[in-house]
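Quick one: structure for this chain?
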Amino acid sequence: MRQFILDNRLKYPSFFNGPVPSFGDADAELLIIGLAPGLKGANATGRPFTGDYAGDLLYETLAEFDLSNGMYEGSANDGLALKRAMITNAVRCVPPQNKPIGEEINTCRDYLISQMKALPHLKALLCLGKISHDSTIRSLGLKLKDHPFAHNVAYDLEGGVTLFSSYHCSRYNTNTKRLTEKMFHDVFRAIKSHIDE
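Got it. Here's what it folds into:
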């Protein structure tokens, strides 16, 4: 994976090409956990879900549910700020073929654990896709068989935190209607109700 990043630094010298940091409110009540940076999305811009199609739906939805300020314009310099929410990824660097392998997921798990611990007001986790869901469950020391992935599923955890999961907001999932805007909004409606309690 390191060689892939080094190769990208030569191929795309203007790209961020490194571990993409989390983005959002340091007092976040909601942590959104994606899969990994896209080659020409977050790997290029240095901000999660910024510069690719998945970000269009995610950031539009955050605005719809009053979890952001400013306009999303697909650039890390667009002035967008999140409210009550933070976005991170289960894998911090772009993987070859945009498909992380187990070793990459396991290596990055400590960063995910640290990010969750760094949010003292955390009330909700939103996992986008099965890989994100499974890595998060493992990060929490829980068993996958007791917390299987499904769209719009919610699991109550210790300390008043609830884990929500959704199909990933990728172009493929939305083009095939596996995930519609309404389905995505339904997940956020449940999350917003939970963090507003």
